[in-house]
Structures
1.
Amino acid sequence: EAGVAQSPRYKIIEKRQSVAFWCNPISGHATLYWYQQILGQGPKLLIQFQNNGVVDDSQLPKDRFSAERLKGVDSTLKIQPAKLEDSAVYLCASSRDKAQGLYNSPLHFGNGTRLTVT
Amino acid sequence: SQELEQSPQSLIVQEGKNLTINCTSSKTLYGLYWYKQKYGEGLIFLMMLQKGGEEKSHEKITAKLDEKKQQSSLHITASQPSHAGIYLCSGGTSYGKLTFGQGTILTVHP
């Protein structure tokens, strides 16, 4: 099966600019995740979708970050305006699990988008 | 909130040596995953553990989950340079919260 697709692979922007990332999960995967991974740290969950509904966005900085998953398939994550501390790798992952609290399937990750804010 | 602590933070071994990475949770885990990450790339799934006392092996890598489901270990036998990378554990609670450890950087010298 095709893996999780993410684009772009790299992005360099100046602070206060906006940026958008795109993710296409594995076909048939109900759950989609966006993670932020700062260098030297483990991934931090930003938002979790179940089909096209949000089930967890408690760690999403909603004043500048937004995400949507239209039609329950692909998703976009946007940052506006960007800050220096947003420099990180943004990882998208998907899973077959259809509800929170089910741990029957692993997450499948894309290669991520490396964002540098100058 | 649930936290996962990994140890050691980094590990340098000579090729052929055995090694163990630990992952400890402050709460009971209902799913525990191990991933490997190459620098600048996504995470690759290694193994999943769900039951207390469960142990799984794939090639030279063995993962275990203790009976209390709060601690897991990843053991590599006869390490090779191809094993080098960042190893991350990820665990889920009954509330559906899935978090990651901070990762263990493994370097294997030929």
Note: The longest strand of chain B covers residues 85-92.
2.
Amino acid sequence: AQSVTQLDSQVPVFEEAPVELRCNYSSSVSVYLFWYVQYPNQGLQLLLKYLSGSTLVESINGFEAEFNKSQTSFHLRKPSVHISDTAEYFCAVSRMGNTGKLIFGQGTTLQVKP
Amino acid sequence: DAGVTQSPTHLIKTRGQQVTLRCSPKSGHDTVSWYQQALGQGPQFIFQYYEEEERQRGNFPDRFSGHQFPNYSSELNVNALLLGDSALYLCASSSGTHKNIQYFGAGTRLSVL
């Protein structure tokens, strides 16, 4: 079975500051990793994914995440945040293969202050 | 190109009633997964439908059932509603060849009184 731990429930940060949202996972098999973002009263939007290849993956809006197999981590980073990045962020894992069952962490609330 | 659409957006029911939630997948997708998101929690996997059959199921009781139609749309049914069933129900669609890459709808907010 897989599990996901998001180490911070809330991360307050000032606008234009860098941010890191931490995600660790546990699995006895190889996995795929995902970050989703949820704005208030909306569904989840896929932010980025790691399936294979380069361990550093990037999104179109400046976020990046690095897969670290030895530390079983997939932390999300952004060098300079905007007010509009305020949202709930979820890390998710699925076992490798075409299974489709995502296991989510509890979420991290990113609060960007002016 | 429409994304994943869910209806209704909000629903209020009383304990013991039954509810049906609906989902239309993104164009080109044939797999639908359902998740329950309680307040302040991450989504939890309920089940997945592909080729009109339930393919995987999470740790949910038999009160939760579903269906997939030939046009790939899907329904989630919950019988004998409990207060604890109050949550945001999310539908996610994916292609049969990439079931793990899922796109979510805005969800149905179910309140059980």
Note: Chain B has a mean pLDDT of 95.
3.
Amino acid sequence: GAGVSQSPSNKVTEKGKDVELRCDPISGHTALYWYRQSLGQGLEFLIYFQGNSAPDKSGLPSDRFSAERTGGSVSTLTIQRTQQEDSAVYLCASSLGAGTVYEQYFGPGTRLTVT
Amino acid sequence: AQSVAQPEDQVNVAEGNPLTVKCTYSVSGNPYLFWYVQYPNRGLQFLLKYITGDNLVKGSYGFEAEFNKSQTSFHLKKPSALVSDSALYFCAVSSTGANNLFFGTGTRLTVIP
């Protein structure tokens, strides 16, 4: 079946503008994750959604970052008033169930460049 | 607190030779351990995981990893490297009740023909 898809694949924005990044998880996967991958660094956890439970937002770096997941499927990560340090690849992943015992399937990412 | 160390930024190995990519971890409780691979311009792909049971875990593309509790390690291995194995490899750790994976900084593997 189809994998995790993300859009756009690339986004260039000016400092101070808002951006929205979209993730379509694998059908039937109840868990959804957002990570950020900066150059030369590992993946940094941002937020986790599981079913209808309240999301785990503990990884969001500032209140400029927010995310929602509608209908238990598609998710949108929003970054307000973007800063140059927000430049990174934003990765979405989904998994079959709750908890990290299930392997996560990653999308191709959105490369965000803030000029 | 969870942490993962991949002590080598770069590993070079000749085609046909065995390869090892190192990973050590620190976690409270019993660890869940994962290896992912990232090919150029592609997303991360799951290779293998250790949750419980046999310490030697076999995964995709002929890779395997051994969980060593006393050394808190989970090194990735393959008996005979292929040029197509050249990629960026990430080790990740989690534990029971955790909501996310904690990733290492990655090791770039280059297999030389």
Note: The CA atoms of residues 4 and 10 of chain B lie 16 Å apart.
